[in-house]
Structures are given as structure tokens and as C-alpha cells.
Amino acid sequence: MSGLEIERKFLVHKKMDWKKLASNCSHIQQGYFAAVNTVRVRIRDDKGYLTIKGPSRTGGLSRYEFEKEITLEEAQQLMLLCEPGVIDKHRYLVPFGEHTFEIDEFHGDNEGLVLAEVELGSEDEAFEKPDFIGMEVTGVRHFYNSHMRRNPFKLWRDSIPEEYR
After folding, report:
1. What residues are paired with 139 via a beta bridge?
2. What's the CA gap between 109 and 7, in Å, rounded?
3. Residue 44 is inside which H or E element, if any?
4. Whole-angstrom Cα distance, residue 42 to residue 72?
5. Alpha-carbon distance 98 to 95, whole Å?
6. The pairing of beta strand 24-33 with beta strand 38-44
7. Residue limits of the CYTH domain (predicted)?
8. 99 and 105 in contact (C-beta within 8 Å)?
9. Which of 60, 100, 124, 132 is the most exposed place for a label (fewest CB within 10 A)?
């Protein structure tokens, strides 16, 4: 898959039971390579992916993305070449209205952080927000997975409101 990725990102209210709405859950591990653009390898359950993301010109709302499925063995071998700071999370898919929210529950040094993303067809596309969706963090670098591998949530968790940590 390649093309323009348009997504908005939000913190998730901790005390709301959003997991019961999930239609799917998968375990994701991803590592990053030193590069000008964001280059990552991802293992999602038993599949591998290589992804390259370009810079955002719209405050984090949209950017070019290239993604290709690779074998699990290739992904495991590439993980050995990644820089320190593997991202470990569970991703839940929660259908709501006309969209599906991808909710990431992070583990390890990012334990306690829960983020929701919704992919859109255009930057001004309207969408319904479920009650568990909170403060928008689209374009805030702290919440980029590639940033959290070097600056994990455990170091800055007190900087966000308590209902999200």
C-alpha cells in the first residue's frame, strides 16, 4: 500500500470501557531505522511489514506512506538491525459510525499510554467521535511512535492530564 495517509490522533479516557467495543485485537512490535524519513519494520501477530513515511506538511495530519508486507522471518531479521527502543503495543479496532478507530495500548516504557487514530479520506472529512475519545494530539511529536522509542511515555507521563495516564 502506498499513498497519502490522512489521520487524526487522540488520547483515550482511561476510565471508559472501550475494549468491549473492539472487533479485533492484534499484538504489534515495531522497530525503527536511522533515516531522514521514518523507516520502520513491524511485526503484527504473525505478519511482517516494511513502512516508509515521508514528512508531514500539514501539522501531522497527512503525509506520504509506503507499506509492503514482508515475511515474518524477514521482519524478525530486520528487527535485529533496528535502533534501540522497540515499540510494543496491542491494537484494537473499534468501529464507530462510518469509521474504524485504531486504539493502541502501549507496553514497556510506554505503559499506561492509550492512543486512538482515525484514518480519513480527506483532511476536512467529518467523523463521529465516540465518548472515550479525548484530547486531540494530531501533530504533537511526543505521541509519534518513532519519537516514543527514544523518549518513552514514562519520562513525560505527568505532562498530560491525569484522566489519560
Report:
1. none
2. 25
3. strand 38-44
4. 9
5. 8
6. antiparallel
7. 3-150
8. no
9. 124
pTM attached to this predicted model: 0.90
* pLDDT tens per residue, range 77-96: 999 999 999 999 999 999 99
Q: Are 142 and 152 in contact (CB under 8 A)?
A: no
- Told to judge if 32 belongs to the known catalytic residues of this protein, a careful annotator would answer yes
Return d(Cα 78, Cα 81) in angstroms, integer: 5
Separation of CA 59 from chain center: 16
Which segments within 71-120 are labelled E, that is strand? 87-96, 99-106, 114-119
DSSP structure string for 128-141: ---TTEEEE-TT-G
Could you report the per-residue pLDDT of 85-136, keeping only the tens digit for each?
999 999 999 999 999 999 999 999 999 999 999 999 999 999 999 999 999 9
